[in-house]
């Protein structure tokens, strides 16, 4: 057993360069496949392997770009990772989590829609998620012995948040879905 930020978990296996863990479930509070919001959350910068950081730009799109040390302290550059407790008999693959940043207009959540499009959406973080296929739910898996993670979509299994150059501005990257096998573009570091 290992403990990650206060939650105990059991190592299950390694699949396509992802480590899979199972989190114990309180059988007295079992309720089908409902995910309950945990009290556990943290704020972090999200950095890719090229040392660029994920940002919400103008409240309307996600970009990845360089930040100075001073810019890294700006609260608007950090994302909140809010975790959920799964109350299902099915073994979990990673920790269920929603990612959001806070702007003057409220919480802006990382969501995935039709045709594997990733977009920001203003919403309140739900206390319970009845459908494990929620637009804003991801499963976070830590790569063993590192502060690197993969975020798998609940809506598109086997697809992780990754980064890709913008066609209109090749000096910037944006969030896209990548399959596990594509490369390390779906691995992020939390700072």
Topology diagram in text:
Blueprint lengths: L1 E3 L2 E9 L2 E5 L12 E10 L1 E2 L5 E5 L3 E5 L3 H4 L6 E8 L8 E9 L2 E7 L5 E5 L5 E2 L8 E5 L5 E6 L5 E7 L7 E7 L8 E3 L1
Antiparallel strand pairs: 1-2, 2-3, 4-8, 4-12, 5-17, 6-7, 8-9, 9-10, 9-13, 10-11, 13-14, 14-17, 15-16
Written overview of the protein:
The chain has 191 residues and is an all-beta fold. The chain has a single domain (2-23, 34-190), classed as Trefoil (Acidic Fibroblast Growth Factor, subunit A), CATH 2.80.10. It has one helix spanning 69-72; strands at residues 2-4, 7-15, 18-22, 35-44, 46-47, 53-57, 61-65, 79-86, 95-103, 106-112, 118-122, 128-129, 138-142, 148-153, 159-165, 173-179, 188-190. The strands form four sheets. Strands 4, 5, 8, 9, 10, 11, 12, 13, 14 and 17 form a ten-stranded antiparallel β-sheet that branches. It has a three-stranded antiparallel β-sheet with strand order 1-2-3, with no helix packed on it. The protein is globular.
């Amino acid at each position: 057993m290992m403990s990650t930020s206060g939650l105990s978990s059991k190592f299950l296996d390694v699949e396509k360069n992802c480590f899979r863990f199972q989190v114990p479930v309180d059988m007295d509070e079992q309720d089908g496949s409902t995910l309950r919001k945990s009290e556990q959350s943290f704020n972090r910068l999200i950095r890719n392997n090229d040392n660029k950081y994920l940002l919400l730009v103008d409240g309307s799109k996600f970009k990845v770009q360089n930040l100075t040390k001073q810019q890294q302290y700006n609260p608007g550059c950090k994302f909140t990772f809010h975790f959920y407790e799964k109350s299902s008999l099915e073994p979990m693959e990673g920790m269920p989590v929603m990612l959001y940043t806070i702007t003057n207009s409220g919480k802006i959540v990382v969501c995935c829609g039709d045709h594997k499009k990733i977009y920001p959406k203003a919403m309140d973080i739900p206390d319970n998620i009845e459908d494990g296929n929620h637009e804003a739910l991801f499963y976070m898996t830590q790569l063993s012995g590192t502060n690197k993670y993969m975020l798998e979509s609940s809506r598109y299994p086997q697809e992780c948040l990754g980064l890709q150059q913008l066609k209109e501005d090749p000096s910037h990257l944006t969030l896209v879905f990548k399959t596990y096998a594509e490369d390390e573009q779906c691995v992020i570091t939390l700072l």
